[in-house]
Amino acid sequence: MKIRIATLFYCASLILAATDNCNLDSEEQGKESSNCLQDLPTVSSLESWIDQVQTEHITQDGKLANPGHTSDKNVKCRLPSPRTCSWGDCNTVSPGVGNVTLADLSVMGGLWQDGLLEGYGNVTYQDKSVLKGNFHLGCLNGLVTLQEEDGTLLVGWYHLGELSSGPVWLLYPSREGAMYTYLEERLGVNRLSRAAFTGDTVAWIYPDFKTGIVGQFVAGTMLSAREAEIMENGEENGIPKMKMSLIDANTKIYAFDPSTDMHLSSSPLQRDPYERKLLHVQTSRIPGAGVGVFTNLPVKRNTIIGYFNGIHRHRGGIFKDEDKSAYLVEGTHRNEMLDIPEEYQSWQMYQGSAGHLINHGQEGNVDYTECWHPRFGRILCIQTLTDLAPQTELLVKYDVAVDGDGLKMALKTALHLGHAVSGKSKDQFAKDVRPYLKLVSDIVKT
Fold it and tell me: Dihedral sign, CA of 91, 92, 93, 97?
């Protein structure tokens, strides 16, 4: 993935050159004691469970899908009509493997006996989400997972075909965090979906599984929440339960406030509670670089430790602007760029995220990766590439973005007029610049 960029413009007759303006003193960077790395956080039982349940859904072996409690009455969950056996043996009295397509175009697959699913099976919905769990007489029972199209995984407990009370989890694929709620009885939610994450005690849990934001959510969207301490509190039906304690009832309220092409943040000086724990901004150790971003605590490799929130700009308009931004980064969608408006480029004016202040290093120790944030929405996360000790300055290797169409036009003009400027023939001039044309061609392709 391409990351933060430096914009370069090529004059038609210029020979390409690259200059590294940041000379990193590796000895200075390495002064932090390696003993600090001995304090790296260990893997918790919750993290181990998340690894297990995510792997379980992918491998489809059903080990975690405990069938749970079945009714003494042997309740049967018959499928609604109309339904069609779209593949395999679905309607026979003897067991047969097949798929049944329902009226809403969802497809149920597994082992069928007398028109009922039995054992480990799955349901694929029209939105391409896939539910997996254990069926008995056609009824889902036990631990059930639902994977959305983007890889987000929901986990809950079913009894007699309906979502039961108890802990419900939503696990994000890039490990940027999770959502948690405890579903009470008779809340009108009978199917595992984001609708379960509606209420006044829903929690967004950060990657350390200790920091959270708890409050009012609707279908997973944060309306009003405060910082909280998150602790494991046993389990129910094999699903971890969490205890949530507000840090201070008077702390600032967080709400879903995604950036647009014009709007960055309604609360530009409100820091993210997780990033505040792990990162701080101070004068960079790189001469002339201004400020930089540093770690507060030891952090492990492949850990999300901060964020880059910016306004969303179209790539095509970037190179047409007279004033070029030094804070551009490729966004999460095709031809999308994230940028920091001029009035918010100073840390004194914008502290919602610190990712735009990370300096360049030829050997970067962090990278930008796509992720979801409860306040900013779909943005970029800062992920470590190696274990980092406290007081380590974060460095990212900048890539270069080029105005491909403009560059091609400039080269075409250069080849047309260059021989006149140089005094050489067209053939000789083209031969002389061919190595540089190859280099530019490679850049445009990337």
Answer: negative
Side chain identity at residue 405, one-letter code: D
- Say how far apart CA 115 and CA 95 lie, in whole Å: 9
Report the alpha-carbon distance of residue 333 to residue 393 in Å, rounded.
Answer: 29
Tell me the CA distances in angstroms from 127 to 101, 107, 141, 188, 303, one per residue in order. Answer: 14, 11, 23, 22, 30
- Rounded to 5 degrees, φ, ψ at 79 are -75, 145
Tell me the two tokens of residue 135. Answer: 């069926």
Q: Please compute Rg for the chain using Cα positions.
A: 27
Tens of pLDDT, residue by residue over 302-327, are 999 999 999 998 887 765 665 566 77
pLDDT tens track for 402-412: 444 544 454 55
d(CA 188, CA 120): 26
Amino acid in the structure at residue 351:
Q
Q: Which two tokens stand for residue 262?
A: 């014009």
User: Considering only 187-191, 193-197, 346-350, which range has the smallest mean pLDDT?
Assistant: 187-191
- Strands 395-396, 359-360: pairing is parallel
CA angle 154, 129, 168 (to 5 degrees): 15
Mean pLDDT of 106-111: 96
What value does the mean pLDDT take over residues 236-261? 92
% of the chain beyond a pLDDT of 90: 61
Altogether, the residues listed in the chain come to a count of 446
The encoded tokens of residue 52 equal 């297990």
- Report pLDDT digits (tens) over 366-385: 999 999 999 999 999 999 99
Give me the helices (H) in 5-44, please.
26-29
For residue 206, what is the DSSP state?
A: -
Question: What CA–CA distance (Å, rounded) separates 344 from 350?
Answer: 5
Q: What secondary structure letter does DSSP report for 109?
A: E
Inter-residue contact 120 to 109 (CB < 8 Å): no
Find the distance separating the first CA and the last CA of the chain, reported in whole Å: 10
Q: With beta carbons less than 8 A apart as the criterion, state whether 319 and 339 touch.
A: no
**Residue 86: how many other CB atoms lie within 10 Å:** 14
Q: For 27-41, 244-258, 300-314, 332-346, which range has the lowest pLDDT when averaged over its residues?
A: 27-41
* Residues paired with 370 in a beta bridge: 380
Contacts of 417 (CB under 8 A, 6+ apart): 12
Q: For the beta carbon of residue 401, count every other beta carbon within 10 angstroms.
A: 22
Q: Which two tokens stand for residue 54?
A: 């995510």
